[in-house]
Amino acid sequence: MKLREYLHFVSNSQSLEELWPAHTRQMETFGFDRLIYGFTRFRTETSLGDPEDFTILTNHSPEYIDGFLHGGLYFHAPMLRWALDNEGAGSWRQIYEKFDLGALTAEQIKVVQFNLTHKVTAGYTISFNSVSPRSKGAISLAAGPGMSQEEIDAIWDEHGEDIHLMNNVAHLKILTLPYSPPNRGLTKRQREALEWVGDGKTTQDIAILMGLTAATVEKHLRLARDSLSVETTAQAVLKAALHNQMFIMEA
């Protein structure tokens, strides 16, 4: 898709299932065939929060994600550390420059070696503007196997502004769409019960409104808390709202 066509598509996308595959295909036309998008609302000075609370979108292999994300390598990734301290687009060239200068830590070298085994060797990282000190979003654009950083830098020199704009718009759209972490989505009844709680209704009120018993309403709320890995219903309402899982249109 050309830039205008792409922007129209993204602005009208109704789900991540619609947007993300199209975005990965669009980036592949520029040579970036493997992407990881990440966003957190639980950043602190020493942590990015629970990985299970991250919004993660990727087309990397399960083996790569298992090591990079679930194995905790992401926390020491040089370009992630760069993204936390900067906003904008950064070439991976700086990783190799720091390596040559001996400026990478042992943990960062381990990440570089892991990436080499998976042929993740050239690319760009875009760090998105943050509106809160607790939020941070970034996307890693990995070049196809065999492409050099010199080739990718040349592509960026020609198309970088458009690529950056496309990713910024995709990021802003992603923040508005419902996101359900794996195995933690809400059922229609659980979501409806949380929505009524968000409207200030009591359990008895919700039972009447949903045509259920109070015990059944409590069951839906308990299962919602379990699905969202929180202790209280108030926390469940907040987390569901942050992931845009409440007050959504049915497909």
Gist?
Keywords: DNA-binding, Transcription, Transcription regulation. The protein is of the alpha+beta class.
How would you describe this structure in keywords?
251 residues; alpha+beta; Beta-Lactamase; Arc Repressor Mutant, subunit A; 2 domains; 5-stranded antiparallel sheet; 11 helices; 5 strands; elongated; LuxR family transcriptional regulator; DNA-binding; transcription
List the helices and strands and how they pair.
Layout: H1 3-12, H2 16-28, E1 32-40, E2 55-58, H3 62-70, H4 78-85, E3 88-91, H5 93-100, H6 106-117, E4 123-127, E5 136-143, H7 149-174, H8 188-198, H9 203-210, H10 214-228, H11 233-242
The N- to C-terminal Cα distance equals: 25 Å
Number of helices: 11
Mean pLDDT: 92
How large is the radius of gyration?
A: 21 Å
The oligomerization state is single chain
Give the strand order, joined by hyphens, for the main sheet: 2-1-5-4-3
What is the structural class? alpha+beta
Q: Mind telling me the CATH superfamily name of the largest domain?
A: Transcription factor LuxR-like, autoinducer-binding domain
Strand fraction: 5-15%
> Can you count the beta strands?
5
Query: Which CATH class of the largest domain?
Result: Alpha Beta
Helix-residue proportion: 40-55%
Q: Which overall shape is indicated by the principal axes computed on the Cα atoms?
A: elongated
Summarize the biggest pleated sheet: 5 strands, antiparallel
Query: What's the number of structural domains?
Result: 2
What does this structure look like?
Helix 1 (3-12) runs parallel beside helix 7, helix 2 packs antiparallel against helix 7 (149-174) and helix 10 (214-228) crosses helix 11. Helix content is 52%, strand content 12%. With 251 residues, it is of the alpha+beta class. The longest helix has 26 residues, at 149-174. The chain folds into two domains: 3-174, 2-Layer Sandwich (Beta-Lactamase), CATH 3.30.450.80; 188-242, Arc Repressor Mutant, subunit A, CATH 1.10.10.10.
